[in-house]
Design brief:
The protein is built from two helices and 38 strands. It is mainly beta. The radius of gyration is 66 Å and the shape is rod-shaped.
Amino acid sequence: MKKARMASFAALLVVGLFTGVAEANYTITMTGRSSCQAKQWVTVKATLYRYGKLAKTKYVHKNRYQWYAFTWNDWQAFKKRGFNGNHPRVQGVWQQANSKFNITNNWNSVTNGDYVLVCQTSKTNWYGAGYLRVKVGPVVKPRPRPRPKPARKVTKIVLSPARATIKPGQTLEIHAICYDQWSRPMPKVALSYVAAGGGTISGNCYVAGRQPGKFQVWVREPVSGIARVFDVTIVQPAVVTRIVVNPPKAKCRPGGAIQFSACAYDQFGKVIPARLEYVSQAGGHFKGSTFYAGAKPGRVLTWVRHRGTNVAQVVEINIVDPRILTYLTIKNPVKRARCGTQVKLELQGWDQYNRPMPVPGNCSWTCSRRARLWNNTFFAPNQPGQYVVEVVDPKTHVRAKAFLYVFP
């Protein structure tokens, strides 16, 4: 008897799950999400209909309902072979909303897969059954909502080079790179170039004028209004305007040599490298920057010049033969004096060219017969007679004599 009841109950369950009804006038409709993620709750609702309309309270029995959760494969096997094993079930609750009697249940799956949620109601017999297929997938990060990219615009202009120094008439090309708001270079951007004096500009090519000074070139992007300033300095070409020779004057002996050094200065007072030429008249010659004097004394004019600008500096060189004391004389070499008087002797010197020259002060004076003598002053003794005074230059050993006659 029990076996017959179990068989009839299983057959009724199979018919209810397949058709969604136990009797032709009762149906259950289930609603909820058809997909979710693992370990995420899904709310499903089961609504009982009788003859196509919501069932009233008397047809719904609060304590006579069941929930089942099948895997998709088990559900297919159940439909085909009348599967009646133990299945996971979750309990539901009755909720009343807007006079609707809905069976609501929250269900979550631990693993991914394809599941079927089944709901049944009964009193003494099964009145109806309904199911909902739910696909449980892996956790997928929500994709960000695509946003339209903002239009690229110029936010910075970089000049290469940022400044330059050129000469009058020289041509300079200005290179500019534009960057957008993401610091990415933007090619083929139309820029305007404006020269604020000093020269002319065509495109990005600047031609310097003849007037020296500091000038600017404005590089602007017309759409964004961003601009950069390019500094241009026009300088005059440095030329030699002055030559300084050291020593400015020189003196040497015949056959001697003098080393000169010369520096060239430009119009701004700065030393400028230049190839200088050393030239001399007769009386000596240059070898490089060294002057070699000739054998003849005299004054020689030399100069240092720059061929490119014809700027020159004259240097005067005196070739002198050093004066050498070659002859000494005593003025009035023969004198007469009385005993006990003083006689002052005047000494004169002559060079190799028979020209008078100063007499050295360290000459030695001597007198015969032991008469008193103090430098060039002779003290006549009390004894009459002839005395000889001799003077000698210790450097050249030139001598001179004087004869003094002492009488009573």
